[in-house]
Amino acid sequence: MLVAMVIENMLCDLGCDAVTVAATAEQALARIDAQDFDVAMLDMNLNGVVTFEVADALAARSVLFLFSTGSTGIPSNHAYADRPTLTKPYQYQQLAAMLSELLAHEPPNPLREQFARR
User: Fold this and answer.
1) Contact assessment for residue 16 and residue 99, using Cβ atoms and an 8 Å cutoff
2) What is the DSSP secondary-structure string of the chain?
């Protein structure tokens, strides 16, 4: 959870108004059902569970998301192979650039202007 707290702080420093953390895929799915998200950052492995089911739930709700992983990433033949992916460890500037790029390709979003100024 320490890594999650560091990432949460990075996201807050980048101007995110609200950051929700889930330690398991089940928690993530429950939070997706309970609230709306502008953008999501999804670890590919939550407590040993590959999180493609969580990615499916985000995609079904048209939520922008990127993956974060400590492994080699998504297999090139997977449906989410084209999704932005940050490989751990990553720096604040890499996270900011990835979020900025993700938000730049979408319809107007209040977060886009915040990240464009960084």
Assistant:
1) no
2) -HHHHHHHHHHHHTT-S-----SSHHHHHHHHHHS--SEEEEESEETTEE-HHHHHHHHHTT-EEEEEESSS-S-TTSTTTTS-EEESS--HHHHHHHHHHHHHTSS--HHHHHHHT-
Strand order across the 85-87 sheet:
39-43, 64-69, 85-87
Which residue ranges form the domains of the chain, and what is each CATH number? 2-116 (3.40.50.2300)
Given a cut of 70, whether residue 113 has pLDDT beyond it is no
Q: What mean pLDDT is predicted for residues 50-69?
A: 92
pLDDT score recorded for residue 66: 93
Average pLDDT for the chain: 84
Strands 49-50 and 45-46: antiparallel
pTM for the structure as a whole: 0.80
Q: Is the pLDDT of residue 34 over 60?
A: yes
Residue 17 corresponds to which amino acid?
A: D
